[in-house]
Please model this.
Amino acid sequence: MELTKADRYLLEAIRRGDQEGWRQLVERHQGRLLAFAAGRVAQRADAEDLVQDTFVSFLKNLLNFRAQAGLETYLFTILRNKIISRYRSQATAKVTLIGDVMPADSSPGGSNGFAHIADADPSASWYVRRDEHEDLLANALTHSIRDMIEEFKRGLKFEDLKLIDLLFFARVANNVAARTLGVSDNRVAVNKHRYLDRIRKGLGRVDLPADFPIAQLENLLADIWTAYRPSCPKRSTIGGWLLGSLEADWADYVGFHVDRLGCRFCQANRDDLQAAAQAPDPAAFNQRIMESTVGFLSVGR
Ligand SMILES: [Zn+2]
Model:
């Protein structure tokens, strides 16, 4: 999810204090953020407060926004951090990136397939500045991963896409990935090697030393997944999936990503799209957010 040209125009307008631009941005994202928060906290009112705080933080930090990830991902990240910090003491409020949707029998030892993974360090804010070399490397890795995923999508390589989701996004062990997809452990190991090799080769002029620790590389890849969600289907694709208008193999992949893997971000989009189809009246909430944020709008000028 990269920042689109339309997003850039919108952000420029908001930086100038443009209220209509701000209203548009809030309106576009409020539903999916609310769906995300509502799934994590018990009370609807708390979820609304969190979303409101998220938009306030966004405006306050507008100048620091590094426009490399998409707006949606950035907003999700702020919201997620807010949920984590508010409920840090409560064990029930774990905000994993991946839902615990795996069937019990696919988990190596527990009843909750993915609960042990994909629980990224909440303090690892990806938009905090890293050192320059790490920045370059992260950028190159991001491009390389995107190229690979685009190629797999064009080639309709859905087994590869699922495996990449399992290994690098959900970060499950090879044998769990193998069982989930019904393939051999060896096939997973061989493919994982192929993906990492391909990612390294796509780095261009940025140097990744041959002895770069594999665990560190995998952590970096996980950070990139959190920050850029390179494998997440577009919102319009999720919409098509809900309407049943996707081709069968695409629908199967989107279903895997959303329901089986349990991507929280895409689930929020799904829930929001479903809610919008049923009760299209987000106006009151929009009004509330506008009233509570408009005072911060000129801060970035
Ligand atoms: Zn997703």
Notes: Residues 229, 232, 257, 263, 265-266 surround zinc ion (CB under 6 Å). The radius of gyration is 20 Å. The chain has two domains: 1-97+264-301, 112-117+124-262.
